Amino acid sequence: MLFMRVSPGLEHFQPHWNNADRLGDGGQFMTVQSSGKAGSDAAGQRPQAGRGLSLPGNQDARAIKDLRLGIGVIGAFLPIMLIAWNWIAGDKTIVPTSMSGSYYTSARNLFVGSLCALGVFLILYRHTILQNLCTWCAGAFALLVAFAPTAPAPPATEPQWVNYLHHAAAGALILTLGVFCFVLERGDAAGAASLNPAEPARYSAQPQVPRWRRTLYFTCGGLVLLSGAFALYTGVWPTSWSTGWSSLYLFEAVAVFAFGIAWITAAAVRAITIQQRVVADLVRQRGSEDPATRTAWARLAALYGSAGHTPQAMAALDRITDPGPAPTPDSATLS
After folding, report:
1. How far is residue 178's CA from residue 140's CA, in Å, rounded to a whole number?
2. Sign of the alpha-carbon dihedral angle for 294, 291, 120, 223
3. How many CA within 13 A on the CB side of residue 58?
4. Are the C-beta atoms of residues 145 and 138 closer than 8 Å to each other?
5. Quick one: angle between helices 61-89 and 271-286, nearest 10?
6. Using alpha carbons only, how large is the chain's radius of gyration in Å?
7. For the chain, which end, N or C, has fewer CB atoms within 10 Å of the first or last residue's CB respectively?
8. End-to-end Cα, the chain, rounded Å
9. What is the pLDDT of residues 104-158, one digit of tens each?
10. Does a structural domain hold residue 115?
11. Is the residue at 165 inside a domain?
12. In this structure, are residues 281 and 191 in contact, taking their beta carbons and an 8 Å threshold?
């Protein structure tokens, strides 16, 4: 196996856990020390206090792909699954007036459970700064929608503030998920095309997302926001064309389905490409000597090795002992 051999310069490396070196996601990273010059320099360069909040998450690339797929599947299939569940259960209401109305049908547990899973997946997701902000907010909103149900049909009642909270959280959730589709457009591949382990000084953050994927993200984002606007309009100002059928459910379903497709598409991005973006961002923001950057390089080397790219894997490992010249800082690392 590739990583059974020791790369030159790694013979004297001794890992230990350092609780002071953390990223914004609260994780611990393995500090790599060496008896050589690189290890001595790294030991003398401590990350500045307070910088963790401005950093991208250093989550494993495979975990990012799995979370994206799970979130996407829930979004894409939830609207039809709610209807199918009511039909199989023989509920008198097959298609409720809104997706939130599923709370008062046979699909209640499916609806609440899916929203809880969606919320947890979104909160656990870590990648780039803007993506982290969007997903954390969206996850919190999803949990609020799940635990603050919409108003039931008369004569049943609930506290009015619960109904207001539900609708505010639902609107904020759709808005955030729509915005996230446009954040995805800036892409995992930003900087990946110029990320050459042998030339760290040439790292850049120029968008390298394929045109078809950018078009799909824009389309999905537009559908989410447009459908959300129609759902808001029909819910607040019902008109003749929107009454008498489940128009609100349709618009909500289109919005949820569109964001699900965007996430499934994002899940198809190669793990190597995702990890390349993590490395490029960390190099620009924390420098090549930082322990978190070294950990990211090691993860990238492992992905290269598992894909059979031995030269790239060994070059990535060499960056741990010989970081090379620092890249020119840039500001395009928030996406």
Report:
1. 15
2. negative
3. 31
4. no
5. 130
6. 23
7. N
8. 36
9. 999 999 999 999 999 999 999 988 788 889 999 999 999 999 999 998 877 877 8
10. yes
11. yes
12. yes
Look at residue 16 and give its three-state secondary structure: strand
User: Look-up: residue for tokens 């494993």?
Assistant: 60
* pLDDT of 36: 37
Q: Identify residue 26 by its one-letter amino acid code.
A: G
Predicted local distance difference test score (pLDDT) of residue 208: 62
Q: State which amino acid sits at residue 94.
A: I
Is 271:292 a contact under the CB 8 Å cutoff? Answer: no
Ranges of H-type helices in 189-245: 211-236
- Does residue 305 contact residue 320 with C-beta atoms inside 8 Å? no
Q: How confident is the model at residue 9 (pLDDT cuts 50, 70, 90)?
A: very low
In a domain? residue 315 = no
278 within some domain: no
- Of 14 and 312, the one with more pLDDT: 312
Higher pLDDT pick, 114 / 293 = 114
User: What does the alpha-carbon distance between residue 195 and residue 202 come to, in Å, rounded to a whole number?
Assistant: 7
- Please give the tally of structural domains in the chain: 1
Count Cβ atoms below 10 Å from residue 213 Cβ, excluding itself. Answer: 19
Examine the pLDDT at 49 and tell me if it is beyond 80.
Answer: no
Is residue 140 exposed (0-12), middle (13-18) or buried (19+ Cβ within 10 Å)?
middle
Task: Return the C-alpha torsion angle 146, 148, 153, 158, nearest 10.
Answer: 150
Check if the beta carbon of residue 78 is closer than 8 Å to that of residue 114: yes
Distance CA 204, CA 190 (A): 8
| Six-digit token string for 138 | 């969206």
Helix (H, G, I), strand (E, B) or coil at 20: strand
Domain range holding 248? Answer: 61-267
Q: What is the pLDDT of residues 242-267, one digit of tens each?
A: 666 788 899 999 999 999 999 999 99
**Residue 184 clears pLDDT 80, i.e. is over it:** yes
Neighbours of 20 (CB within 10 A): 10
